[in-house]
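Every protein is a chain of amino acids, and every chain bends into a shape of its own. The protein below has been through that process, and both of its lines are reproduced in full.
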Amino acid sequence: MSMTVEVTLEEVLARHNVGISGTEFLAELDADLSRITDPAAAPLSATEAAFLREHAGPAAGEVLDTDPAVLVRDARRAEVSRIAELVAGSAGIAEVALLLGVDRSRISQRLSAGSLWSFRLGQGRRLPRWQFTADGHSLPGLDVVVAAIPAELSPESVTGFMDTPQPELEGRTPLAHLAGGGDPRPVAALVAGLGLW
């Protein structure tokens, strides 16, 4: 006999000290899911579909042959995963204050000064966990890198960059480069260049 335990979103968010309410989380998710348009709402013409089949490669034909409802469902599931990864890969101001052993106001000051980077989720700010070492410190040279992050970059883009080996850093990731005491200026130049694309 299996027993079902019901748990609320509020309980999960509180248990993991996310620092965002269930209402805020659901509002963010709802807004993001609403941006996904149904491809059946504006179907391609036969000419457009033929052009894509001929010039866009084999993956285009596979997408064109997929039921639009499946495409929408898959896109919405991917968006739910994206939001969950954003929350899991970041921390609220209170959690970062505990991690660094400082007062919350010090984290707010560092955000204002540009020595920590955050993004908005719901009503609050989230700080990506990549900024911190396992022993409870912020990465060396972080202030130089944070100052170079273009405002239009998404948290996923910045995190992806920080976790990707860069030839300019002798094949190391920006995180490994900074954690090893490397010069932050090459990392700053690379991240600034992301805003040019």
